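User: Hey, quick favor. My workstation is busy. Could you predict this chain's structure for me?
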Amino acid sequence: MGPLVVLAYSGGLDTSAIVPWLHERYGARVLCFAADVGQGPGELHGLVEKAKRSGAVDCVVADLREEFVRDFVFPTLRAGAVYARTYLLGTAMARPVTAAHQVAAAQRAGAQAVAHGCTGKGNDQVRFELTYAALAPELQVIAPWREWQFQGREDLIAYVKAKGIPVQATLDKPYSTDRNLWHCSHEGGILEDPAKEPPEHIFAMTADPLEAPDLPALVEIGFEEGMPVAVNNVPLGPVELLESLNALAGEHGVGRADVVEDRLVGMKSRGVYETPGGTLLHAAHRELEQLVLDRRTLRLKDELALRYADLVYDGRWWTPEREALDALVAATQKNVTGAVRLKLFKGNVAVAGRESPYALYQPSYATFGKDNVYDQTDAAGFIHLYGLAIKIGAGLEATRRQSEVGAAAE
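Assistant: No problem, here it is.
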């Protein structure tokens, strides 16, 4: 009896090929593990049967949607993490929760190894394997893309067809898509040319902005300590909240991003991402922070966001670094409570209002009208001290120039 290998399984092209390949290459018995992180019923329907037809001994499907949004998406949102200026990290956030439960399944089954379908060029191999290293370093890791003879998706399509395994990918539409509750990513095919506009038919979560409703929509998002808790004053759990925002933003064509990003392995790649509800949440969360946090805390938060984005993108979720950053984020979010109204119109998002019991904005100080709390003559002394270094520097420079002119005259 061969070794038992637990494979992170999606039923897509790569993992469909891996099941028979593991049996051929290692004589392995393959237990497939599929994580439901909100791909949708279309991708999960018939997954167990498909895995068994591919040669797997069984397929475990775990519903991780609540945990994914609550413990991975929302903490990353609170951190304000955005990679490559526009990528909202949908794929990157899903890997550590998937890999952690894959490891748990392997440990329960007494498996000797875990496997994944990530390529040797991508980021996901790092995200999976750093999770394995953190949570189960004793397990052998098998990465077929770094071993087998196949050179690309064309070879894989031919291989699975020869095995009689149905897949959606074709030579005409060799796109790689990854969908969860937070986003849908698209790579491959014509998208590998960054000069080409993404074809409209690839989009799955967002309407064409040109075909979106001709009237704007208003939505109000409520937060408590930086966590989204309500939509239009209706309290919602994490999954329901995100689903409702996805539907609304998607209808109005909001949330598309065409990104040329820097992969962890060193190359640039091009991905097209749809993150409808997430785009609204990031816009609202940033605006609420702007209302309640002081200038220096906001600056610290912005610096922290870049570091957090790198951590998530690079797969370093299960580390003391992330725990420390989460503690710092939590300290900044104590007063990030309130509501933000957004206006959606043909792919665009605009802030239509914001309010918080912890707002640092005070009309009595900010008004251009008459007030009794601010003495404008105080500004003279403030500007004098604030600009003192500039004034001293300018005086020294003037003295130096006069000396040079005098020396030249002699």
